[in-house]
């Protein structure tokens, strides 16, 4: 069954005490929100805090912690890196893969991301695979072909059984951190396109169960309209996830 999910992406923000108090505040506010197996909340925190945040979310039935990145190998001589096997050992169950900031600033290619996806799945970590076009791609009306390539090269090596454990996040790069949100029509159009690709490759049932999140300046004032689109199954929230009340109001919009 398709799940509705809101993920908070804290990026490289917050000091330890701030991170803990934000997580506690979110947990407390969410006590009044009806979460369930099909309506979950995930906190994607700096890796330093994953251990602690996992302890907190672990006490909540429908809250989870998430890494912002993993290495494509499980272990070995990769100084400074973290891996799926290691985050699993501290209770993390999700990871972002291919966030546009990683693609842009750390030269992550679809080929590398395909390996990260496989490694995450090998440890039962659910990868949240991010895709999205640049503003220039949209101006030139190349946005569908950019997303097609990102999805094909990043995910289509997976078997049907593996693919069932994937989440996709569509994040138009021009909307990330800019205050400019995709309209609900633009979001729905791209989410429906992504789902159509999955139908073609993996069939109706798997495509129907797939959670596709929208990300890019999603906030309390526009979340409801975006989440009402039939193919938008929740959000990947950056800036607004740093304010407990805003984040929880976005969850309420699910
Ligand atoms: P934003 O970031 O909500 O601040 O636009 C979203 C993201 O980068 O995941």
What this model shows, in words?
The chain has 254 residues and is α/β, with parallel strands linked by helices. The protein has one domain (4-252): TIM Barrel (Alpha-Beta Barrel). It is 44% helix and 16% strand. The protein contains twelve helices and eight strands. Strands 1-2-3-4-5-6-7-8 form an eight-stranded parallel barrel, surrounded by six helices. Helix 1 (16-30) links the parallel strand 1 and strand 2. It is globular, with a radius of gyration of 17 Å. The mean pLDDT is 97. 2-phosphoglycolic acid binds at residues 9, 171, 176-177, 215-218, 236-240.
Instruction: Give the CATH superfamily.
Output: Aldolase class I
User: Biggest sheet: strands, sense, closure?
Assistant: 8 strands, parallel, barrel
Mean pLDDT comes to 97
Name the bound molecules.
2-phosphoglycolic acid
Percent of residues in beta strands: 15-25%
CATH architect. name:
Alpha-Beta Barrel
The shape is globular
Number of continuous helical runs = 12
Calculate Rg over CA atoms. 17 Å
Helical residue percent? 40-55%
Structural class: alpha/beta
Along the chain, the helix and strand elements come as EHEHEHEHHEHHHEHHEHEH
Q: What is the CATH topology classification name?
A: TIM Barrel
Number of domains: 1
C-alpha termini separation: 16 Å
Q: Order of strands in the sheet with the most strands?
A: 1-2-3-4-5-6-7-8
């Amino acid at each position: 069954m398709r799940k509705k999910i809101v993920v908070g992406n804290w990026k490289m923000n917050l000091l330890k005490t701030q991170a803990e108090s934000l997580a506690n505040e979110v947990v407390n506010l969410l006590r009044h929100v009806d979460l369930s197996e099909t309506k979950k909340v995930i906190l994607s925190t700096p890796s330093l805090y994953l251990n602690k945040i996992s302890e907190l979310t672990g006490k909540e039935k429908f809250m989870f912690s998430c890494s912002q990145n993993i290495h494509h190998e499980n272990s070995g001589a990769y100084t400074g890196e973290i891996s799926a096997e290691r985050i699993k050992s501290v209770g993390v169950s999700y990871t972002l893969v291919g966030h546009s900031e990683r693609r842009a600033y750390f030269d992550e290619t679809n080929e590398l991301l395909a390996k990260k996806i496989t490694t995450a799945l090998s440890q039962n970590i659910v990868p949240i695979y991010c895709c999205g076009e640049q503003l220039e791609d949209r101006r030139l009306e190349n946005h569908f072909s950019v997303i097609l390539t990102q999805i094909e090269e990043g995910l289509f090596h997976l078997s049907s059984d593996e693919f069932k454990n994937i989440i996709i996040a569509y994040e138009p790069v021009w909307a990330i951190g800019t205050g400019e949100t995709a309209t609900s029509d633009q979001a729905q159009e791209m989410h429906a396109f992504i789902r159509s690709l999955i139908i073609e490759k993996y069939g109706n049932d798997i495509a129907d169960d797939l959670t596709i999140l929208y990300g890019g300046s999603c906030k309390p004032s526009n979340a409801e309209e975006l989440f009402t689109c039939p193919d938008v199954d929740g959000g990947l929230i950056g800036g607004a996830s740093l304010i407990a009340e805003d984040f929880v109001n976005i969850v309420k919009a699910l």
